[in-house]
Specification:
globular, 96 residues, alpha+beta, 22% helix, 2 helices, 5-stranded antiparallel β-sheet
Length: 96
């Protein structure tokens, strides 16, 4: 069954922007990002899933144009605290 606000992509539930809200970038602000697994299923609980996710997150973090201040990986969701990238937006970084 599809979620009313989003769709599944690679096990993560991707939400569309609710009507009437806008994103503001370019002020050098920090951004708190939450990602939930599809139907809150604990896809990231096994080390075989979690460890590659953290490895890839580390590769993205090591890029000089992106600042990742903190992250928490839980079995069914992820929290990120990021700065704004030098190129693109926090949304494009999350897509990576």
């Amino acid at each position: 069954m599809a979620h009313p606000c989003g769709f599944s992509k690679g096990g993560l539930l991707v939400f569309s922007m609710p009507q009437g809200l806008t994103r503001h970038y370019g002020q050098g602000d920090l951004h708190f990002v939450s990602l939930s697994c599809y139907h809150r299923f604990p896809f990231l609980k096994p080390p075989q899933a979690r460890n590659p996710f953290v490895e890839i997150l580390g590769q993205v973090r090591d890029r000089p144009e992106f600042l990742l201040l903190a992250y928490v990986v839980m079995p069914d969701h992820v929290h990120l605290l990021t700065g704004e990238p030098k190129k693109g937006t926090p949304s494009t970084v999350v897509q990576i």
